[in-house]
Write a structure and sequence with these properties.
- 2 copies of one chain form a homodimer.
- By secondary structure, chain A is an alpha+beta fold.
- Chain A contains 9 helices and 11 strands.
- In chain A, strands 1-8-3-6 form a 4-stranded antiparallel sheet. Chain A has a 4-stranded antiparallel sheet with strand order 2-7-4-5. In chain A, strands 9-11-10 form a 3-stranded antiparallel sheet.
- In chain A, helix 6 crosses helix 9 and helix 7 crosses helix 8.
- Chains A and B meet through helix 4, helix 5 and helix 7 of A and helix 4, helix 5 and helix 7 of B.
- Chain B binds a DNA duplex (30 and 30 nucleotides) through helix 8.
Chain lengths: 268, 268
DNA sequence: CGACTAGTTGAGGCCAGTCAATGTTGGTGG
DNA sequence: CCACCAACATTGACTGGCCTCAACTAGTCG
């Protein structure tokens, strides 16, 4: 089953990352060495969605110098855990991660679902310790952005400074929307919002917005949406029954995004 | 009924702001002119809790130059509304505000409850428009901090830069905790968290942490906690019945904070 | 093949929502 | 000062949506 429109050159389809690495975009760019691809914002396909968005060539070079090694994660590896000292932000180059917050009583909840181009670790700045855990949902690669050096560079590059502020602020807005979802929406609405939100994010990254593969289990989705896994499963089934979507395990196809939008805001 | 320990000199007790202005701290500080009190971080009692925390005298002077007028709000006035262009952050000097987010379908939810020393408006940076509405819960005064000038100054004052980042990041952490609350806690636990959180914030500001006056209605508290006003009311009554708290309208006294903490994390 | 994890589906229970009646408080004007 | 009103709060009876518990299926991996 093909699940994503092939977008930006050199970017493996998220559907099957390991396979894609071998087949998909292999013969693409012999002009640029692998070394370059690994370490430079200037040549990164996520450049405009990332911290480097809108920067000029000269400024990009300065960021290139700042970006540390890439880190590769296998599925289920954690990038960082709650309580660990905070040193860097991470830009997702490839793959996806979930972040989970831990309550004192041990309760754990998924607080975010992050994909390529996203910046994670922002909640560690305030306390100098990571406030949550980040776990790879598939094989994943991230760029390490040492925060002290970001702050340093931000002082001389206003565009970078503003980008950083925007990323922080947008994370706050995003969280407010999730609070709205958790505080006042019924289960049906929550799943509809979730599916449409993913669609939009895939769209912005050049992938299909109507057909994608979930990287989370029903339980993780439930945790994110404040629901139990059985409820999530039942909702998927019901949405399929009424022709809103087509589900096959984690493969989702939105058959009627408009109707999905209409679910949001409906009483009873 | 006296409800708050008198703390920092020159700061009216939150219990009765208008009365306090006349009686409470009137004969306190004839050394500093009213004009100074109005416009300078250097002499503000919330200095250390605010953006100016940890700055040296010289740096404080630079912030003083940046801080625009104070704005006075009467109860129910909005400081800003969702969708309005974003120009400035606001530091609360006196009083308190709620922020509310609006869903597309018109649903509204309280997303925050802010008191003196807090900075609000952070979610407007990302989109250049305010993402929520801020409404005064009582007579309130805020300092206007034009954001462009903050960014400018932050480039030359690393301590301010870092403070700003910390404020943004802490807001994210705070939101994650609320998400945890909304997504996985029972009604009892939510109210316990709410009451203890307020206690802690009052404590940090030098007020009593066991006796305070709520500035929100039951409905607003419910909206914040993802509950209906009747549920909030019932919980207050139940908490009182079992001797956890004493409630009289909006006046709350925590009789057994330890037991309140134990409620959090309990099943069933 | 068995063990394990992920997902689906059903039956029943409970927590919080809904609807409704009543009580309380605070501000306003006569 | 009191009467009045509106907003806020309390309490009860009932309902329903989601959770819990449980059985079963499908796919994966050693």
């Amino acid at each position: 089953m093909t699940l994503n429109a092939k977008p930006l050159p050199g970017t493996p389809a998220p559907a099957a990352p390991s396979a894609a690495r071998a087949s998909g975009a292999a013969p693409a760019a012999p002009v640029i060495s692998l070394r370059d691809l690994k370490t430079h914002c200037s040549t990164c396909s996520m450049r405009e969605l990332c911290l480097s968005g809108g920067l000029n060539t000269d400024e990009l070079k300065q960021i290139d110098a700042l970006v540390g090694n890439r880190t590769k994660l296998k599925k289920n590896d954690s990038l960082y855990r709650a309580g660990e000292p905070f040193h860097a932000l991470y830009a997702i180059r490839l793959g996806s991660l979930k972040t989970t917050v831990l309550a004192e009583d041990g309760r754990e909840q998924v607080s975010g679902y992050h994909m390529l181009g996203d910046i994670i670790g922002l909640d560690g700045i305030g306390t100098d310790r990571h406030g949550c855990q980040a776990v790879a949902l598939e094989d994943t690669e991230v760029c390490v952005l040492p925060f002290e050096r970001i702050e340093e560079l931000a002082r001389s590059v206003p565009a970078l400074q503003h980008n950083l502020h925007q990323f922080l602020s947008k994370e706050i807005s995003r969280d407010h929307n999730i609070m709205l979802l958790l505080g006042s929406m019924r289960a049906e609405e929550r799943l509809a919002v979730f599916l449409l939100n993913l669609a939009e994010r895939y769209r912005r990254r050049g992938y299909s917005s109507t057909e994608y593969v979930l990287r989370m289990t029903r339980e993780e989705i439930g945790s994110y949406l404040g629901l139990k896994l059985e409820t999530v499963s039942r909702l998927f089934s019901r949405f399929q029954e009424v022709g809103l979507i087509q589900v096959q395990g984690r493969a989702v196809k939105l058959l009627d995004p408009g109707a999905l939008k209409q679910i949001i805001g409906q009483r009873g």
